[in-house]
């Protein structure tokens, strides 16, 4: 007996060992083919970058089928989504049929994702990052039947996060805590799919409005799936959003373009409590803190097709009603009573313009004070509005029921809104003021004993009283009337009082009387700021009555006074403050015209590190803008910009200003500088400017400017731009008109001296420098709105591998065009003279038009140093000698600053005094055809070539030459692409006038030479 048990135990142990050994053996055999098959299928089917850290196999989780587990799976986009992550999953499992593997196939049985993060994006152009399946893999093929088979029966997702953003419709969807379990026989044409889905939080935004905020959703559903017709029919379901439950009936069919739906929904068991759970701030797992009564109804249908082609939508109807409801909150002494709510959403035609949102009734009473109304809007894009809303509520009690996070309000609000008519939204990119039509409306609201406090405030705005009235009786927004009456609000001893009436938004009839007294130190209690401290007493008094219309020259009769005493501004970025700030200003208008308006700045001063700065003066007649201003003081830019920073720009240096100016802006714009007087000086010391818009630091070591009404005289300017050091003197004219009118040019006549100018440092450092980062060049835009003429004296110019010395001549920059006149310089050991234009008025098609005169340029140096030479004369690569030329050439440049060959035109003359042609295949083939070795590697002397460039070809006009003692006539055509056609007539026989014709075709590297007549060149 004992012996039998022993054998049994031994047998069991042996069987387990065999099973474990077989499992290990099978896994070791299958792991590599499964990984290779997965990688192969991914590469064949997806247009995306897919990576995973490791793959492991298990037989036990889905025995007997092996399960492949990929760790840290990442799918990233291509094209416009390069680098964007579509999916990240710490664990991705695929169950594979063991019997399929044994037959040599890969059959997928189930898919599981653990904690995936999915990010779906559709751009404004309608391009989606999830369209990653290659189009040619969508249809089944013979390879599919013999390779990968999808025979899923289960899909599982645990603790997922899914975000969707459609930028074309401004729609955003965020799902967190996604758990999904679905089972079905996917291999069958018709099968049942059972699913349980739980969403921890659902948030939906559309067109800037949040319609769903962190809602909890559960769905249990059974579907009949017909893959042949792409139809999904609901067998059973239960849907819950927070406490709100409803059911669906019907189905959905996917069409070639869009879908067709026939579905009903209802919630016959719902009540007010469940409806309230959908409102922001109300839903909690434990809803015992409030009590409700009241019946509710929710039902509707959706039926029809959507294709996106004919702009029709499915017809739909939704009813949501609450009758005779009450709502009692534990923290509120009185309940909301008599709650009535009836909302109908309807579209019976399938045309978007017939959509109706009809809030037929909304009513509740709070402490016997009613809040009631109705609202109806019909249309899409153009709306017919009918609204009537009234209330008389205690804001504190209402905020307790419907809290606004971080804010506490109080006071009694009594308001009424009535609106009827059409609303046409403004065109895209226009403001609300440009809406073609608005409904006729009237709005009245009165707030008494109001108050406001939010979490970051250390004080409360109290004693708030105001009456707001607005109306429109014409449907034109310009005729809107707005009145702000009985304004009063207080923060300790700070007060704002007064009223303001505006009638019409085009010709504005203004009647306002406002008074503000404020201790600036109290602003921190309203708007806490960690980076700055302010102090001082600010008082503003405004009394204004009349018409404001700039086009008619009308300005309301106004008297406004502004004073600031003992102002103080301290930034934590710098230990010293701007202090002793005083401002006294008065705006007066007595006659009701813009011409009569006058602004007097009696005093505007501050002190910064014991250095005073002062501005004073007067501006009057706002039609012509008379001015009389004085500016005196020393400004330390580094210290000042730490307190008042300029975004994207760093400045340091001292600016000493001592300027007095009087005149009229209208005279400046008309160029009548004699009618103005501007005197004074501006001295700049150790100025440094850097920032994202400045490619290299600009340094001004020392500069002194004398100002007159017409001219700024630059006595001296010593500076540095990157590695380039320069000095500049000269005059700037039209400068005041340039400042006051952005259409005017500032003119300059300047003398520029520079030791070495590094042109590459002028290129802005932006995204557009990607070409330069790859080793190329970049178009440099010429500034507009300036007209500068430089008499230049530059010893060296360096641009990439081009070196120029002794550059002098006249350079003009005028309205995005750079012109050079008789600019002489030395480069590559030769003397150059250049004149012409570089035109960047159209940056997509920059142009050039130059005349070049070159004397005694080495052929080898030209070929290696000038890219255009390599394009137009590739045969010069193996040539030796010198040449001179006078040439005109014009065309367009591409983004790499290379001529667009199809746009090139021009021509000129090239003279070669002495040259040796080495290794050129044309002469090699010509010597073979003529059977004269002397023609190979010829030595050429003293000849001239005339050429013309057009239609992407270089036409070489007939010329005569002596080739190694043989007289020859040559003419031909070079295509810039490399093809050649030449006629060469060589005097091979010792008989004068008899020359043998040769026709040369092919390319420079592979020429074809044919002896004989009858060949013609293209015209």
Comma- or semicolon-separated keywords:
flat, mainly beta, 58% strand, 1019 residues
Q: In short, what is this structure?
A:
With 1019 residues, the protein is mainly beta.
| Helix-residue proportion | 10-25%
Beta-strand residue fraction: over 45%
Number of helices: 13
Tell me how many strands there are. 50
Low-confidence stretches: 7-29, 137-148, 281-286, 765-776
Distance between the termini: 114 Å
Radius of gyration: 42 Å
Question: Mean pLDDT, rounded to whole units?
Answer: 79
Shape: flat
The protein's oligomeric status is: single chain
Taking the sheet with the most strands, its summary is:
50 strands, mixed
Structural class given helices, strands, pairing? mainly beta
Description:
With 1019 residues, this protein is mainly β. 11% of the residues lie in helices and 58% in strands. It has 13 helices and 50 strands. It has a 50-stranded mixed beta sheet that branches. Strand 18 and strand 19 form a beta hairpin. It is flat and about 125 Å long.
What's the layout of helices and strands?
Elements: H1 2-45, E1 49-51, E2 54-58, E3 67-76, E4 85-96, H2 98-102, E5 106-114, E6 117-122, H3 142-146, E7 148-166, E8 171-183, E9 190-206, E10 209-226, E11 231-241, E12 244-254, E13 259-266, H4 272-276, E14 290-306, E15 315-329, E16 336-347, E17 356-366, E18 369-378, E19 383-394, H5 395-401, E20 407-423, E21 440-454, E22 461-472, E23 481-491, E24 494-503, E25 508-519, H6 523-526, E26 532-548, E27 557-571, E28 578-589, E29 598-608, E30 611-620, E31 626-636, H7 637-643, E32 649-664, H8 665-669, E33 677-691, E34 694-707, E35 711-721, E36 724-733, H9 735-740, E37 746-758, H10 770-773, E38 786-799, E39 802-814, E40 817-827, E41 830-839, E42 847-858, H11 859-865, H12 867-872, E43 879-892, E44 905-917, H13 921-930, E45 939-950, E46 953-963, E47 966-975, E48 980-986, E49 996-1002, E50 1007-1011
Parallel strand pairs: 5-7, 6-7, 37-38
Antiparallel strand pairs: 1-3, 2-3, 3-4, 4-5, 4-6, 7-8, 8-9, 9-10, 10-11, 11-12, 12-13, 13-14, 14-15, 15-16, 16-17, 17-18, 18-19, 19-20, 20-21, 21-22, 22-23, 23-24, 24-25, 25-26, 26-27, 27-28, 28-29, 29-30, 30-31, 31-32, 32-33, 33-34, 34-35, 35-36, 36-37, 38-39, 39-40, 40-41, 41-42, 42-43, ...
């Amino acid at each position: 007996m004992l012996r039998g048990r022993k054998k049994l135990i031994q047998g069991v142990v042996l069987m387990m060992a065999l099973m474990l050994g077989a499992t290990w053996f099978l896994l070791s055999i299958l792991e590599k083919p499964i990984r290779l098959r997965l990688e192969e299928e991914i590469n064949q089917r997806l247009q995306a970058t897919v990576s995973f850290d490791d793959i492991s196999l298990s037989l036990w989780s889905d025995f007997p089928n092996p399960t492949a587990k990929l760790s840290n799976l990442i799918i990233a986009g291509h094209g416009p989504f390069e680098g964007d992550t579509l999916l990240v999953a710490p664990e991705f499992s695929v169950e594979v049929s063991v019997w399929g593997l044994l037959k040599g196939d890969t059959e997928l049985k189930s898919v599981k994702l653990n904690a995936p993060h999915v990010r779906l994006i559709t751009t404004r152009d309608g391009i989606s990052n999830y369209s990653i399946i290659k189009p040619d893999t969508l249809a089944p093929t013979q390879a599919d039947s013999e390779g990968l088979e999808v025979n899923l029966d289960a899909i599982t997702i645990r603790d997922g996060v899914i975000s969707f953003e459609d930028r074309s419709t401004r729609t955003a969807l965020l799902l967190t805590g996604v758990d999904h379990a679905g089972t079905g026989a996917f291999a069958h044409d018709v099968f049942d799919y059972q699913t349980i889905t739980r969403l921890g939080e659902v948030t939906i935004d559309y067109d800037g409005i949040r319609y769903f905020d962190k809602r909890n959703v559960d769905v249990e559903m059974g579907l009949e799936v017909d893959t042949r017709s792409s139809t999904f029919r609901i067998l059973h379901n239960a849907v819950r959003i927070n406490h709100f439950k409803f059911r669906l009936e019907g189905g959905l069919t996917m069409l070639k373009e869009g879908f067709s739906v026939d579905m009903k929904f209802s919630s016959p068991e719902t009540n007010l409590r469940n409806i309230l759970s959908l409102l922001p701030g109300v839903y909690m797992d434990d809803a015992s803190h409030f009590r409700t009564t009241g019946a509710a109804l929710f039902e509707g249908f959706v039926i029809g097709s959507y294709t996106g082609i004919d702009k029709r939508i499915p017809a739909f109807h939704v009813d949501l009603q609450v009758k005779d409801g009450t709502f009692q909150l534990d923290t509120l002494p009185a309940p909301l009573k008599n709650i009535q709510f009836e909302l109908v959403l309807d579209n019976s035609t399938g045309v978007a313009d017939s959509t109706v949102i009809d809030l037929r009734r909304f009513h509740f009473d709070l402490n016997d004070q009613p809040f009631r109304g109705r609202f109806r809007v019909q249309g899409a894009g153009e709306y017919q509005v009918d609204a009537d809303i009234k209330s008389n509520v205690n804001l504190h009690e209402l905020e307790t029921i419907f809290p606004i996070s971080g804010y506490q309000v109080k006071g009694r609000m009594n308001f009424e809104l009535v609106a009827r008519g059409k609303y046409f939204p403004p065109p895209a990119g226009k403001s609300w003021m440009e809406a073609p039509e608005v409904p006729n409306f009237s709005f009245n609201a009165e707030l008494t004993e109001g108050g406001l406090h939010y979490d970051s405030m250390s004080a409360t705005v109290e004693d708030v009283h105001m009456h707001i009235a607005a109306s429109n009786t014409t449907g034109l927004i310009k005729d809107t009337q707005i009145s702000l009456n009985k304004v009063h609000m207080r923060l300790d001893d700070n007060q704002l009082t007064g009223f303001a009436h505006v009638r019409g938004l085009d010709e504005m009839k203004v009647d306002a009387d406002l008074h503000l007294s404020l201790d600036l130190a109290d602003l921190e209690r309203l708007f806490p700021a960690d980076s700055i401290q302010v102090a001082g007493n600010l008082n503003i008094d405004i009394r204004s009555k009349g018409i404001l219309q700039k086009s008619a020259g009308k300005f309301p009769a106004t008297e406004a006074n502004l004073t600031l005493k003992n102002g103080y501004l301290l930034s934590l970025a710098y230990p010293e403050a701007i202090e002793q700030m005083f401002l006294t200003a008065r705006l007066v208008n007595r006659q009701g015209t813009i011409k009569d308006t006058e602004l007097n700045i009696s005093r505007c001063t501050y002190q910064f590190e014991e250095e005073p700065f002062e501005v004073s003066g007067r501006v009057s007649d706002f039609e012509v803008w008379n001015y009389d201003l004085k500016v005196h003081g020393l400004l330390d830019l580094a210290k000042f910009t730490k307190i008042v920073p300029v975004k994207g720009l760093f400045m340091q240096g001292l600016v000493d200003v001592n300027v007095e100016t009087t005149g009229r802006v209208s005279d400046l714009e008309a160029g009548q500088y004699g009618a103005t007087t501007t005197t004074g000086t501006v001295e700049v010391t150790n100025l440094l400017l850097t920032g994202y818009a400045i490619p290299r630091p600009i340094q001004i070591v020392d500069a002194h400017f004398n100002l007159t009404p017409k001219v700024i005289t630059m006595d001296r300017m010593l500076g540095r731009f990157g590695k380039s050091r320069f000095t500049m003197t000269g005059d700037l004219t039209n400068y005041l008109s340039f400042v006051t009118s952005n259409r005017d040019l500032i003119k300059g006549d300047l003398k520029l001296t520079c030791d070495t100018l590094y042109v590459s440092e002028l290129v802005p450092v932006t995204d557009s420098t990607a070409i330069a980062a790859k080793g190329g060049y970049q178009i440099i835009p010429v500034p507009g709105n300036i007209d500068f003429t430089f008499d230049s004296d530059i010893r060296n110019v360096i641009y990439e591998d081009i070196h120029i010395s002794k550059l002098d001549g006249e350079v003009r920059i005028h309205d995005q065009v750079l012109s050079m006149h008789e600019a002489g310089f030395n480069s590559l050991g030769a003397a150059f003279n250049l004149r012409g234009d570089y035109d960047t008025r159209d940056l997509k098609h920059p142009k050039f038009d130059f005349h070049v005169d070159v004397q005694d340029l080495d052929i080898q140096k030209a070929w290696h140093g000038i890219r255009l030479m390599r394009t137009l004369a590739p045969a010069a690569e193996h040539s030796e000698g010198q040449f001179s030329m006078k040439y005109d050439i014009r065309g367009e440049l591409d983004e790499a600053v290379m001529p667009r060959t199809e746009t090139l035109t021009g021509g000129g003359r090239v003279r070669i005094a002495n040259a040796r042609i080495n290794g050129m295949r044309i002469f090699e083939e010509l010597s073979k055809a003529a059977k004269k070795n002397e023609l190979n590697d010829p030595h050429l002397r003293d000849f001239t070539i005339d050429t013309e460039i057009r239609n992407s070809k270089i036409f070489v006009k007939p010329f005569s030459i002596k080739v190694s003692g043989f007289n020859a006539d040559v003419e031909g055509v070079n295509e810039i692409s490399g093809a050649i056609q030449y006629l060469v007539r060589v005097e091979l026989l010792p008989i004068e006038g008899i020359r043998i014709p040769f026709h040369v075709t092919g390319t420079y590297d592979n020429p074809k030479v044919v002896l004989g007549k009858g060949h013609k060149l293209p015209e």
